[in-house]
Each structure stands twice: as C-alpha cells, then as structure tokens.
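Thread amino acids onto this structure.
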C-alpha cells in the first residue's frame, strides 16, 4: 500500500501518522505545504517529505502547488491520498483520479470555516462530495457537522491523531532545571499555555487573568509557546507582556521540550472559543498535569464526568483568575490519574492509527 499525505508542515498530527506508517513498512510520502522561508536550510528532513513553499502571490502559489502535487502523484501512483486540512481538496478537479481520497478534517475546518466563508464553503462542499471517498474527524462535534454539511453518501468516522504515550513517558523533566534555566524561583508555580498565538486561543485573556492571579498569589510564572502564530497577534502579545518578567514567551519549541515543560508545570491552560480534539491537552493529561480548558462539546465524548472539574464556561479574566487559583491551591482534589486512564484507553496514537489503517485497507479493497 502506498500513501501520500498532502498537509501543512509542521503538523504534529500528520507527523504521528507518517511515523507510524513508515515504522510499519508502508510506502509513504508527505507533500508538505509551508510558509515561504519557514523551513531552515539546516533542518534534516526525511527524503520522502517534499516541501512546497507558499509564494507571496496567492494565485501563482496555488498553480505552483498544483503543478508539484500533480507531478508527485503521477510519478508515485499512490493507492490513497490523505489530505488535511479539507481545503486541499481544491486541487483535485484538475488531477486525474486513480486513487482513493481520504479527507481528515480538524475542528476549525468544519466547525468555524463554514460560518465564516459560507459561499466558499458551498463550492468546497461540492468538490468534497464529488471527489472524497472517506472523511475522518477528531471529535463528536466535527463528526456531527460533517453529516449536516455534506452528502449522506460520504462515509465518515472519528479517528484522533492520538498522542504518543511511549514518547511522553521517555521524556525526563526536572522542575528545578527549568526554573534555573529561566532564572525563576525554584518554588514558583508554573502555568503553561501551549497553544499558538492566535486570537482563537484567547492568549490575551489568559495573560490578563494571570496578571490578576499574581496580585494575590505572587509566586507564579506563566509560560507561552507557539509554532504557527498569527504575526499580528503575536506582536500584540509580545508588546502586552514586555513589562512583565514573570511571563516568558519561548516561541517555537520542539516536542521533547514541550513535554518536559508540561511535566514541570502545575497547570496547563487552553481556553479557545472553538476546539475539536486538542492533542496538546491530551499530552498534558498524559504528563499528569492539572488542566483548565474552555467548556466545549469535545469534552462530552470521553470526559463528560469531569467537565466541572477541568473546564469553565466563564471566560472572563476575573473568573479564570479565580479558577486558576482554586486549582493551584487545592491539594486534596486530584483526578490526574483518572484522566490519564481515559487518555490511555481512548486517545493513544497507537490505537487510533490502527483504526486508521483498517480504514485504509477497506478503501484499498473496494
């Protein structure tokens, strides 16, 4: 079986799938679409990862991407083309199809985009209905939306990218080393916001809630990271935190460093306005770190019994500050082990990739 991914780079979700298939002996390529200049020349990429850089002129860029995708598909003759986000289906009316197309739709693809771009999505949905063979989504709300917005003939299922529990378990973390490295108190409580610096993730609200918290709970530090930021929003956040040395923005960090920081943290926070199935939060749970998330529908699939413990619907700065304080000071209440068991059972990359592989096999056997 030969599989080609058409997906952004970097993408932790696709990297997990790509590594799994490679490890199990499948022929895999990744047509990796990325911002111009994002990939450093020194990065040692797998030879089967074909970088396609976006150009400044959008129309010329799309023609260039189409030319490269068409060339690779003709040369490689894959059995399955796995695309994500779903917008990448736009190339296929111009490509002779002699393979199956599996579309992987992440939360915002199907939950946010149709509301923001109604006319564009109508055109896109026509192409999706005509060319795609199977849809996978990462959550219950996404799966419901696919059935609402697309033809009933399109087959779909929930398949998470999952998280690599073996990798997480291997990462060693020492809180003292992290506090020493960043010149903060060894006794400081650490709050970590791992989501990208985008308006959707409400990083500004997190920062302001943290500043309120610090007025009554002084010995606490906030870490921010992100690898795919909105440049304008990133500048806004950098300017906002400039006068506060206890807020540390580390920019893009590697997976091992992210996991190490999560393990050393006392609280990982993520409060987007919309979300589908956040791998970053599953990783935090696997690190056995306290979490605080916005109350959204994705929680109902596996965490319905714990919503009141880990989520909040009140996303004002004052309410978040109080919730963070409660979590950081409540020593008796601890459900981290219970949450870990849920992730271990349902959200490991190994179990979800096996499910994906069964879908690939079924498509190839049709």
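Threaded sequence (366 positions):
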């Amino acid at each position: 079986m030969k599989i080609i991914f058409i997906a952004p780079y970097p993408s932790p979700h696709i990297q997990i799938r790509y590594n799994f298939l490679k490890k199990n002996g499948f022929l895999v390529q990744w047509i990796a679409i990325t911002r111009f200049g994002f990939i450093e020349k020194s990065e040692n990429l797998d030879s089967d990862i074909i970088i396609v850089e976006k150009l400044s002129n959008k129309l010329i860029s799309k023609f260039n991407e189409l030319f490269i995708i068409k060339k690779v598909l003709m040369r490689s003759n894959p059995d399955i083309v796995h695309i994500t986000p779903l917008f990448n289906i736009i190339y296929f009316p111009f490509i002779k199809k002699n393979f199956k197309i599996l579309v992987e739709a992440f939360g915002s693809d199907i939950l946010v985009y149709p509301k923001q771009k109604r006319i564009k999505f109508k055109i896109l949905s026509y192409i999706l209905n005509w060319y795609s063979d199977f849809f996978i989504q990462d959550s219950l709300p996404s799966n419901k939306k696919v059935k609402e917005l697309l033809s009933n003939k399109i087959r779909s299922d929930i398949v998470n990218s999952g998280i690599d529990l073996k990798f997480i378990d291997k990462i060693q973390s020492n809180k003292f080393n992290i506090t020493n490295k960043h010149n903060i108190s060894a006794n400081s409580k650490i709050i970590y916001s791992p989501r990208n610096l985008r308006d959707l993730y409400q990083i500004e609200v997190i920062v302001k809630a943290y500043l309120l918290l610090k007025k009554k709970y002084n010995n606490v530090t906030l870490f921010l990271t992100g690898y795919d930021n909105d440049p304008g929003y990133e500048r806004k956040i950098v300017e906002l935190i400039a006068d506060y040395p206890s807020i540390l923005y580390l920019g893009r960090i590697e997976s091992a460093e992210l996991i190490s920081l999560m393990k050393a943290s006392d609280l990982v926070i993520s409060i987007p306005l919309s979300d589908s199935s956040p791998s970053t939060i599953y990783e935090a749970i696997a690190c056995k770190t306290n979490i605080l998330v916005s109350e959204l529908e994705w929680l109902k699939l596996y965490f319905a019994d714990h919503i009141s413990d880990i989520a909040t619907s009140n996303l004002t700065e004052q309410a978040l500050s109080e919730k963070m304080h409660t979590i950081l000071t409540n020593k008796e209440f601890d459900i981290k082990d219970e949450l870990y068991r849920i992730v271990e059972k349902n959200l490991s990359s190994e179990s979800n990739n096996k499910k994906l592989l069964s879908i690939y096999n079924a498509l190839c056997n049709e």
